[in-house]
Write a structure and sequence with these properties.
- This protein has 245 residues and is an alpha+beta fold.
- The protein has 2 domains: 78 residues, Alpha-Beta Complex (Type Iii Antifreeze Protein Isoform Hplc 12), CATH 3.90.1210; 127 residues, no CATH class.
- Helix content is 20%, strand content 32%.
- The chain contains 4 helices and 10 strands, in the order αββββαββββαββα.
- The strands form 3 sheets. Strands 5, 6, 7, 8, 9 and 10 form a 6-stranded antiparallel sheet that branches. The chain has a two-stranded antiparallel sheet with strand order 1-3.
- The longest helix has 22 residues.
- It is elongated.
Length: 245
Protein backbone atom coordinates (compact mmCIF):
# COMPACT_ATOMS: atom_id res chain seq x y z
CA UNK A 1 0.00 0.00 0.00
CA UNK A 2 1.32 3.38 -0.95
CA UNK A 3 1.68 5.82 1.96
CA UNK A 4 0.45 9.34 1.12
CA UNK A 5 3.26 11.83 0.94
CA UNK A 6 3.28 14.71 3.47
CA UNK A 7 4.41 18.05 2.32
CA UNK A 8 7.55 19.16 4.20
CA UNK A 9 5.97 22.48 5.24
CA UNK A 10 2.94 20.67 6.68
CA UNK A 11 5.24 18.33 8.60
CA UNK A 12 7.12 21.31 10.05
CA UNK A 13 3.82 22.92 11.06
CA UNK A 14 2.65 19.73 12.81
CA UNK A 15 5.93 19.46 14.74
CA UNK A 16 5.74 23.12 15.81
CA UNK A 17 2.13 22.73 16.98
CA UNK A 18 3.07 19.62 18.97
CA UNK A 19 6.00 21.49 20.61
CA UNK A 20 3.78 24.45 21.52
CA UNK A 21 1.13 22.18 23.05
CA UNK A 22 3.76 20.26 25.02
CA UNK A 23 5.41 23.45 26.30
CA UNK A 24 2.05 24.94 27.26
CA UNK A 25 1.07 21.79 29.13
CA UNK A 26 4.38 21.76 30.99
CA UNK A 27 4.09 25.42 32.00
CA UNK A 28 0.53 24.77 33.21
CA UNK A 29 1.30 21.67 35.24
CA UNK A 30 4.92 22.16 36.33
CA UNK A 31 5.46 22.45 40.13
CA UNK A 32 5.64 26.00 41.53
CA UNK A 33 7.39 27.36 44.61
CA UNK A 34 5.71 30.03 46.72
CA UNK A 35 8.02 32.21 48.85
CA UNK A 36 6.40 33.48 52.03
CA UNK A 37 7.45 35.54 55.06
CA UNK A 38 8.24 33.70 58.27
CA UNK A 39 9.18 34.91 61.75
CA UNK A 40 12.75 33.89 62.59
CA UNK A 41 13.29 31.16 65.16
CA UNK A 42 13.81 32.54 68.67
CA UNK A 43 11.93 35.79 68.01
CA UNK A 44 8.99 36.55 70.31
CA UNK A 45 6.78 39.59 69.69
CA UNK A 46 4.14 40.74 72.13
CA UNK A 47 0.91 42.20 70.79
CA UNK A 48 1.47 45.83 69.78
CA UNK A 49 5.22 45.42 69.17
CA UNK A 50 6.54 46.57 65.78
CA UNK A 51 7.65 44.06 63.18
CA UNK A 52 11.28 44.68 62.17
CA UNK A 53 13.03 43.47 59.03
CA UNK A 54 15.59 41.52 61.07
CA UNK A 55 12.78 39.46 62.61
CA UNK A 56 11.68 38.05 59.23
CA UNK A 57 13.15 35.41 56.95
CA UNK A 58 12.23 33.82 53.64
CA UNK A 59 10.60 30.40 53.50
CA UNK A 60 9.22 28.45 50.56
CA UNK A 61 6.34 26.13 49.94
CA UNK A 62 5.95 23.75 46.99
CA UNK A 63 2.58 24.19 45.32
CA UNK A 64 0.75 22.45 42.53
CA UNK A 65 1.09 23.45 38.91
CA UNK A 66 -2.25 25.25 38.90
CA UNK A 67 -1.01 27.97 41.25
CA UNK A 68 1.16 30.90 40.28
CA UNK A 69 4.37 31.40 42.21
CA UNK A 70 3.04 34.75 43.47
CA UNK A 71 -0.37 33.45 44.45
CA UNK A 72 -0.69 32.40 48.09
CA UNK A 73 -1.93 28.80 48.51
CA UNK A 74 -3.15 29.77 52.02
CA UNK A 75 -5.46 32.78 52.40
CA UNK A 76 -3.72 35.61 54.27
CA UNK A 77 -0.21 34.18 53.98
CA UNK A 78 2.13 37.10 53.26
CA UNK A 79 4.33 36.68 50.14
CA UNK A 80 7.98 37.40 50.93
CA UNK A 81 8.09 39.81 47.98
CA UNK A 82 5.50 41.99 49.77
CA UNK A 83 6.91 41.91 53.31
CA UNK A 84 8.43 45.39 53.01
CA UNK A 85 4.92 46.86 53.13
CA UNK A 86 4.41 45.29 56.59
CA UNK A 87 7.68 46.31 58.24
CA UNK A 88 7.22 48.56 61.33
CA UNK A 89 3.54 47.64 61.60
CA UNK A 90 2.45 46.51 65.10
CA UNK A 91 1.48 42.88 65.52
CA UNK A 92 -2.07 42.20 66.64
CA UNK A 93 -1.24 39.32 68.98
CA UNK A 94 1.67 37.49 70.59
CA UNK A 95 3.82 35.74 67.97
CA UNK A 96 6.55 33.18 68.56
CA UNK A 97 9.42 32.44 66.17
CA UNK A 98 9.14 29.90 63.39
CA UNK A 99 5.54 30.67 62.41
CA UNK A 100 4.42 31.93 58.98
CA UNK A 101 3.24 35.54 58.98
CA UNK A 102 -0.39 36.18 58.09
CA UNK A 103 -1.89 39.53 57.18
CA UNK A 104 -4.24 39.12 60.18
CA UNK A 105 -1.18 39.02 62.47
CA UNK A 106 -0.44 42.69 61.76
CA UNK A 107 -2.42 45.85 62.29
CA UNK A 108 -2.24 47.42 58.85
CA UNK A 109 -3.45 50.74 57.59
CA UNK A 110 -7.03 49.65 57.98
CA UNK A 111 -6.37 49.09 61.71
CA UNK A 112 -4.63 52.42 62.28
CA UNK A 113 -7.90 54.28 62.06
CA UNK A 114 -9.94 53.56 65.16
CA UNK A 115 -13.16 54.14 63.24
CA UNK A 116 -12.62 50.83 61.44
CA UNK A 117 -12.80 48.80 64.66
CA UNK A 118 -15.19 50.89 66.74
CA UNK A 119 -18.86 50.10 67.04
CA UNK A 120 -21.52 52.65 66.22
CA UNK A 121 -21.65 55.43 68.80
CA UNK A 122 -18.43 54.24 70.45
CA UNK A 123 -15.08 55.97 70.92
CA UNK A 124 -11.54 54.82 71.63
CA UNK A 125 -9.39 56.21 74.46
CA UNK A 126 -5.78 55.42 75.27
CA UNK A 127 -4.67 54.98 78.87
CA UNK A 128 -0.97 55.37 79.69
CA UNK A 129 0.36 52.48 81.77
CA UNK A 130 3.61 51.68 83.57
CA UNK A 131 5.09 48.82 85.56
CA UNK A 132 2.79 49.28 88.55
CA UNK A 133 -0.65 49.33 86.93
CA UNK A 134 -1.05 45.58 87.36
CA UNK A 135 -1.62 44.68 83.71
CA UNK A 136 -0.09 41.45 82.47
CA UNK A 137 2.62 42.03 79.82
CA UNK A 138 0.89 39.37 77.72
CA UNK A 139 -2.21 41.51 77.22
CA UNK A 140 -3.43 41.22 73.62
CA UNK A 141 -5.98 42.94 71.42
CA UNK A 142 -9.40 41.47 72.10
CA UNK A 143 -8.79 40.99 75.83
CA UNK A 144 -10.95 42.87 78.33
CA UNK A 145 -9.76 44.93 81.28
CA UNK A 146 -11.21 46.29 84.52
CA UNK A 147 -10.43 49.92 85.41
CA UNK A 148 -9.93 50.62 89.11
CA UNK A 149 -9.73 54.22 90.30
CA UNK A 150 -8.55 55.96 93.47
CA UNK A 151 -9.56 59.53 94.25
CA UNK A 152 -9.87 61.89 97.19
CA UNK A 153 -12.57 64.27 98.39
CA UNK A 154 -13.29 66.03 101.67
CA UNK A 155 -14.37 62.72 103.21
CA UNK A 156 -11.02 61.06 102.47
CA UNK A 157 -9.60 58.59 99.95
CA UNK A 158 -11.75 56.16 97.96
CA UNK A 159 -10.96 53.24 95.66
CA UNK A 160 -13.40 51.27 93.55
CA UNK A 161 -14.23 49.59 90.23
CA UNK A 162 -14.93 52.37 87.76
CA UNK A 163 -15.36 50.44 84.47
CA UNK A 164 -15.59 46.70 83.94
CA UNK A 165 -14.71 44.39 81.06
CA UNK A 166 -13.68 47.13 78.66
CA UNK A 167 -12.51 45.67 75.31
CA UNK A 168 -8.91 46.33 74.29
CA UNK A 169 -8.72 47.51 70.66
CA UNK A 170 -5.07 48.63 70.44
CA UNK A 171 -1.79 48.36 72.34
CA UNK A 172 1.33 50.47 72.27
CA UNK A 173 4.68 48.99 73.24
CA UNK A 174 8.18 50.39 73.25
CA UNK A 175 11.33 48.33 72.96
CA UNK A 176 13.43 48.48 76.11
CA UNK A 177 16.71 46.64 75.58
CA UNK A 178 15.54 43.27 74.19
CA UNK A 179 12.13 43.34 75.85
CA UNK A 180 8.95 45.14 74.75
CA UNK A 181 7.36 47.36 77.42
CA UNK A 182 3.65 48.10 77.45
CA UNK A 183 3.13 51.89 77.57
CA UNK A 184 -0.50 52.44 76.54
CA UNK A 185 -3.76 50.52 76.26
CA UNK A 186 -6.62 51.72 74.04
CA UNK A 187 -10.13 50.64 74.98
CA UNK A 188 -13.53 50.98 73.35
CA UNK A 189 -16.21 52.77 75.37
CA UNK A 190 -19.34 54.87 75.07
CA UNK A 191 -19.29 58.66 75.06
CA UNK A 192 -20.59 58.83 78.64
CA UNK A 193 -17.96 56.32 79.79
CA UNK A 194 -15.30 58.39 78.00
CA UNK A 195 -16.35 61.50 79.95
CA UNK A 196 -16.16 59.49 83.19
CA UNK A 197 -12.71 58.13 82.31
CA UNK A 198 -11.43 61.61 81.36
CA UNK A 199 -12.54 62.92 84.76
CA UNK A 200 -10.88 59.97 86.49
CA UNK A 201 -7.59 60.52 84.65
CA UNK A 202 -7.63 64.19 85.68
CA UNK A 203 -8.71 63.85 89.30
CA UNK A 204 -7.72 60.32 90.25
CA UNK A 205 -5.33 57.43 89.76
CA UNK A 206 -6.12 54.64 87.29
CA UNK A 207 -5.06 51.00 87.60
CA UNK A 208 -5.88 48.29 85.05
CA UNK A 209 -6.54 44.63 85.66
CA UNK A 210 -7.12 41.92 83.09
CA UNK A 211 -10.66 40.57 83.22
CA UNK A 212 -11.15 36.81 83.47
CA UNK A 213 -12.65 35.09 80.46
CA UNK A 214 -15.40 33.81 82.76
CA UNK A 215 -16.58 37.37 83.48
CA UNK A 216 -19.73 37.71 81.41
CA UNK A 217 -21.50 40.79 82.77
CA UNK A 218 -20.45 42.82 79.75
CA UNK A 219 -18.66 46.17 79.50
CA UNK A 220 -20.00 49.13 81.42
CA UNK A 221 -19.77 51.14 84.65
CA UNK A 222 -18.59 48.97 87.52
CA UNK A 223 -19.91 50.80 90.60
CA UNK A 224 -22.47 53.50 89.77
CA UNK A 225 -22.39 55.09 93.25
CA UNK A 226 -18.60 55.22 93.20
CA UNK A 227 -18.63 56.74 89.69
CA UNK A 228 -21.11 59.42 90.78
CA UNK A 229 -18.94 60.35 93.78
CA UNK A 230 -15.88 60.57 91.53
CA UNK A 231 -17.67 62.94 89.14
CA UNK A 232 -18.49 65.22 92.09
CA UNK A 233 -14.91 65.55 93.31
CA UNK A 234 -12.88 68.63 92.49
CA UNK A 235 -9.78 67.58 94.38
CA UNK A 236 -6.94 66.22 92.27
CA UNK A 237 -5.09 63.17 93.48
CA UNK A 238 -1.83 65.10 93.39
CA UNK A 239 -3.19 67.47 96.06
CA UNK A 240 -2.72 64.70 98.64
CA UNK A 241 0.97 64.38 97.92
CA UNK A 242 0.56 60.63 97.36
CA UNK A 243 0.70 60.63 93.58
CA UNK A 244 4.44 60.01 93.45
CA UNK A 245 5.07 56.87 95.41
Amino acid sequence: MKIPAIHPLRLVAIVLIAMIVAYGSYMYWKPQTFAYAKLRDGVVLEGGAALKAEYVERASLATGGLLSGERSPIPGLIPYSQIAAYINMPVSRRLSGGVPLLSADLMGKESEGMSSVLGQGMTGMSIPVDNIVGVTPYLTIGDRVHLYTSFEDDAGAHTGLLLREMPVIALQREQEADLPRLVAVTIELTMDEAVLLTHALHYGKIHLGKAATTDQKGPGIGDAAFAKALMNTKKRWSDSGDEQR
